[in-house]
Structures are given as structure tokens and as C-alpha cells.
Specification:
- This protein is of the alpha/beta class and 254 residues long.
- It has a single domain, classed as Alpha-Beta Barrel (TIM Barrel).
- Helix content is 44%, strand content 15%.
- The chain contains 11 helices and 8 strands.
- The protein has an 8-stranded parallel beta barrel, surrounded by 6 helices.
- Helix 1 runs parallel beside helix 2 and helix 7 packs across helix 8.
- The chain is globular and about 45 Å long.
Length: 254
């Protein structure tokens, strides 16, 4: 049985003081929630401080991005080696990275390889744009993205995939739980084709895109959806706690 995972992606929000205050507000109650893996992904500047605040708890830490080289003349970048002592997870291939920073499938593949090599768990993001959805290309786009991201990787057992339809991110317009479940099932079958059914059944695949406390239950109840990558709602302590608590309660009954 796959352990559900709820990850909060804070994006480019919170100063160090604000990040620390948000964690302090959530930490005790979040730590007590069992049956769900909990991951917070603050900006780079807060990773060390938040790591200290989370020490001794069940809450994991993740970064929002990284470069694939371990060191070198790459001004402004952060390497997997730099992250390895700070966190356990790293978000890769997020649609905002692809859209605003021109990240390609090839670059995402290099990052996934680098993360796995050094022992970081990638949260691989993929999803179709609105025009691709309306053209009926969802299946074509997401299968291409997952195949490209895993090119040359022998056994991505620690991989987490996040299906995030681009048209639903930050728009308040979430995909329906049933269509998301169908697409995530497609992704799982694609992983099975690339590796094996056994490996595919062990890979956790999350939904992301305008996830809130009011709609999380519909997603978590679906058999293929193993959790959520939460954006704006993860910046609100009560909202994020409710998302995690609901997810734990629903998965416990299944």
C-alpha cells in the first residue's frame, strides 16, 4: 500500500521570519498526523532554518528546484550536493519553471538523474496546458513528459510524480477528481511499460492544481491518487492542516 504524501509548495513567498512563523504555527499539530507523509517546500533561503525547526518531527523538508551539476561556474544556481544535507525531497519540472524559465524535458531529465544519484527524492511535475487539453492532447503530452523525464534511468523507485494540469495551477479551477484519476492511471500504466507493474504500483502519484481544504477529499478518495502537491493553500496554516488531516482520515478507511 502506498503511503499518501501531501507536499506544500510555498513558491516565491515568505521571508525567513514569515516562514519560521508559519512552521511554528503548524508544527505540533502537523507532526501528530499519522498515516500521511508530510513535506514542506519553502524557498531556498529558509531551508536551513526550517530544517532546524522540523528536527525531531515527522515532517520532511523539500526544495523547490535545483540545477543538475554538483558544482561549478553556474552563478545563482543551487546544486544537489548543496541540498543533500538540508532536505529529503526536491520539486523538479514544475510548470512555472517550464513556462517562465524555459526548462525543457531534457533539462528536467538531467535534474531527475542528478537528484536520484545523490539520494534526493524528486517530485517530478508534469501536466498539459489549456490549449493542449482543449485539443485533446492530454494523453500525448503527459506520456511524453514522463517518458522524457525518466529517459536513461534504470529504476526510479524513490520517485514521486505530481500531475499538475497547467490550466489549474493558481487559477482556482481544479481538474475534476475523476479526470485526474484517469490521467494519473495513465501515468502509472506508462511507468509500468517503462519498468514493471510492480514498480509502477509503488510509485506515488499526486494531484496538484488549486488544491484546497474544500476539494481535497474528492481527489484523495480516488484509487490512483496518492496525495497532493499544494500551492497557495499551503501558506495558510489551518487550510494546510485540514488538507493533511482529511487525507489521513480518508486513506485510513480504505
Amino acid at each position: 500500500m502506498r503511503t499518501p504524501l501531501i507536499a506544500g509548495n510555498w513558491k516565491m513567498n515568505t521571508t525567513l521570519a514569515q516562514a519560521s512563523a508559519l512552521v511554528a504555527e503548524m508544527r505540533e499539530r502537523l507532526d501528530r498526523i499519522e498515516g500521511v507523509e508530510k513535506v514542506l517546500c519553502p524557498p531556498f533561503i529558509s531551508l536551513a532554518a526550517i530544517g532546524e525547526l522540523l528536527r525531531g518531527t515527522s515532517i520532511k523538508l523539500g526544495a523547490q528546484n535545483m540545477y543538475f551539476e554538483e558544482k561549478g561556474a553556474y552563478t545563482g544556481e543551487v546544486s544537489p550536493l548543496m541540498l543533500s544535507d538540508l532536505c529529503d525531497f526536491v520539486i523538479l519540472g514544475h510548470s512555472e519553471r517550464r513556462q517562465y524559465f524555459a526548462e525543457t524535458d531534457e533539462l528536467v531529465n538531467n535534474k531527475v538523474r542528478a537528484a536520484l544519484k545523490i539520494g534526493l527524492t524528486p517530485i517530478l511535475c508534469l501536466g498539459e496546458r489549456l490549449e493542449e487539453k482543449e485539443a485533446g492532447k492530454t494523453e500525448e503530452v503527459v506520456t511524453r513528459q514522463v517518458r522524457a523525464a525518466l529517459e536513461g534511468i534504470k529504476s526510479p523507485q524513490e520517485l514521486v510524480i505530481a500531475y499538475e494540469p497547467v490550466w489549474a495551477i493558481g487559477t482556482g479551477k481544479a481538474a475534476t477528481s475523476h479526470e485526474s484519476n484517469d490521467t494519473i492511471g495513465l501515468l502509472r500504466r506508462t511507468v509500468a511499460q517503462l519498468y514493471s507493474e510492480e514498480l509502477a504500483q509503488g510509485v506515488r502519484i499526486l494531484y496538484g492544481g488549486s488544491v484546497t481544504a474544500s476539494n481535497i477529499a474528492g481527489f484523495i478518495e480516488q484509487p490512483e491518487i496518492d496525495g497532493a502537491l499544494v500551492g497557495g493553500a499551503s501558506l495558510k496554516a489551518e487550510e494546510f492542516l485540514s488538507i493533511v488531516e482529511q487525507s489521513a482520515a480518508i486513506k485510513k478507511t480504505k
